Amino acid sequence: MTAPVFLVEEGALTGVFPGTVFPLSGPEGRHAVSVRRLRVGEEIVLTDGEGTGAFGTVAAVEGKDRLDVAVTSVRAEPLPEPHITVVQALPKGDRGELAVETMTETGVDAIVPWAASRCITQWKGERAAKSLGKWRATAREAGKQSRRLRFPPVSEQLTTKQVATLLADAAFAAVLHEEGSSDPLATAELPATGNIVLVVGPEGGVSPEELAAFAEAGAKPYRLGPSVLRTSTAGTAATALLLGRTGRWS
After folding, report:
1. Four-residue CA torsion sign, 156, 172, 169, 181
2. Which residues pair with 52 in a beta bridge?
3. Rounded to whole angstroms, what are the CA distances from 168 to 7, 72, 90, 188?
4. Residue 166: its pLDDT value, please?
5. Where is average pLDDT lowest: 73-77, 119-123, 193-197?
6. Which long-range contacts (CB under 8 A, 24 or more apart) does 180-185 make?
7. How much is the average pLDDT of 124-142?
8. What strands, in cross-sheet order, belong to the sheet with 83-89?
9. What is the Cα–Cα distance from 136 to 138, expressed in whole angstroms?
10. Nearest to 84 by CA among 6, 176, 159, 17
11. pLDDT in tens, 23-52
């Protein structure tokens, strides 16, 4: 088993170097001590979720919510190239969190919630803030579970017009679409650098008006394969395909 990962505040690892003893407390300290039951000498990783990781061992355990980490090495991961963003239409029920979880575990770099016209689920008012909070919490937990040092940010919900602007600025933009006339994503020409943006539509599909707006922004429709995936799994499958094709999984 690889060492468990715990999240610290942004900037907390600035100035940390081999030989530093770092105190982990609060909710993460409580989870490490009382839930994971880490003991002195066990390996542990601290990350800010922004690409920096401090690797070390537990030096001391205090009470139920604090331990000291003896740092043995520090690593900074560069921004990945090409960068993969998935624009995810809002699924029904808790399938949105499922999509975020599996995409994060697979290796997506950013997630954008999209209010597509055919979405049954709508984020408005307090529900929008609560739902976005759940997606962001899911990305954090999945990032830790999958031992990532760089967690995918989950942006504010975007409109179709805002998504089109995002697509227009991408190095490669694609709309996952099940129509037989769509080109296969497996053979698309991909950039070596820049931002790849994939749009995953809702269960009811992307509307003709949305397809037209995205096409005007430079995003062509592509299909994954002969089967039709649910909106909560299509982004994960596409991310895995691109990570393999771009060499990021090599």
Report:
1. negative
2. 76
3. 34, 44, 22, 18
4. 98
5. 119-123
6. 180/223, 181/221, 182/220, 182/221, 182/222, 182/223, 183/220, 183/221, 183/222, 183/223, 184/222, 184/223, 184/224, 184/225, 185/222, 185/223, 185/224, 185/238, 185/241, 185/242
7. 95
8. 110-114, 83-89, 195-200, 172-176, 220-223, 183-184
9. 5
10. 176
11. 999 999 999 999 999 999 999 999 999 999
Residue 71 forms beta bridges with which residues?
Answer: 56
Query: Would you list the DSSP string of 14-26?
Result: TT--TT-EEEE-H
For residue 222, pLDDT over 80 is answered with yes
Structural domains in the chain, CATH included, are 5-76 (2.40.240.20), 83-246 (3.40.1280.10)
Give the pLDDT confidence score for residue 130 in this predicted structure. 95
Question: What rounded mean pLDDT belongs to the chain?
Answer: 95
Q: Is the pLDDT reported for residue 181 higher than 80?
A: no
Rounded mean pLDDT, 186-195: 96
Query: In angstroms, rounded to a whole number, what is the distance separating the alpha carbons of residues 14 and 67?
Result: 19
CB atoms near residue 241 (< 10 Å): 18
Q: Which amino acid is at 178?
A: E
Distance in angstroms (rounded) separating the CA atoms of residues 242 and 196: 9
Q: And the tokens for 44?
A: 């542990």
